[in-house]
Amino acid sequence: MILVTGANSFLGTNVVAALLDRGMCVRSLVRSANPIVEKTEVFRGNVNDIADIGRAMEGCSVVIHIAANTSQDLLRFDDYAFNWECGEKIARVALAQNIERLIFISSANTIGSGTPRNPANESNEWTKPYTESLYARSKRRAEEVVLSIFPRTIIINPGFMLGAYDAKPSSGEIIARTVGRKVIFAPKGGKSFVNVCDVAQAVANALIMGRFGERYLATGISLSFKDFYRKLGAINGTKFHVVTIASPILVAIGYVGDLMRVMGIKTALSSINMRMLCQYEYYDNSKIVNELQMRQSAIDEAIKDFLHFRDSEFCG
């Protein structure tokens, strides 16, 4: 039996679907379940409650811990305490119940980013502005806490995922926000875009592959925002003009968000987040491709999957 936390999230739903496709027995620790998760053994409980974790983990051999607070508008570092506190509880219960392995889902932002000519790998130094991001710091601390307690852990660090089952949407907002627009304003930087199905398959492969204590960058094709929007327009037949905003202007706008945050107003707008958007978050995924056999699907398919899902009954 495999326990999945955060099973009804974007990545979580795709992981559950990948596991079910392989005929695996899956238990989902959730408060509510979507139609995919309902196909598993659903344990309704609080993923941050050690008693619920213990009961949910009984009889399991592997735990995939995806649940996290991914909000970008929280004001203080301690507001993200769920990420490392929950990770600690999961690790302690896994140790007590002699779980065979723990697969912990983190973020590529806990690893230093690269450039178009020199993409980063898992050994890159973690640098600004990511070391100043409250969310990235919380996930980095969670990685350290989990590994210190449960050495039989494999860490997956996804890049910018796109695809189906992005119900909020989360990262798919980069596609949704273009609907009906003639002009798109884009930052100067870029992302390592990856098909969420590829990440989910790599997570499933980590059940029997990978080395304990290692990080694996689950990333894909590196594109500037401008090039991404051009690709999106070609795929969905939308004609819009892409205008690149100078980095100093974006950072200046971010300072307005900083002021709002000082006033206690929750907002994702901040100078740190704006600086991150201006970076080229380009990564080398050769480690996960070689050791976890991650597929490298075209990002075009992920975009089409998101568009199809957005119009499906599942999405309402």
From TrEMBL:
Q: Which Gene3D superfamilies match?
A: NAD(P)-binding Rossmann-like Domain
EC number of the protein: 1.1.1.219
| InterPro entries in the cross-refs | Epimerase_deHydtase, NAD(P)-bd_dom_sf, NAD(P)-dependent_oxidoreduct
Oxidoreductase keyword on record:
yes
Q: Per its UniProt entry, what is the enzyme's top EC class, as one word?
A: oxidoreductase
Organism classification, top ranks? Bacteria, Pseudomonadati, Bacteroidota, Bacteroidia, Bacteroidales
Q: Which GO terms describe its cellular component?
A: cytoplasm
| GO MF annotation, one | dihydroflavanol 4-reductase activity
| Designated name of the protein | Dihydroflavonol-4-reductase
Q: Which Pfam families match?
A: Epimerase
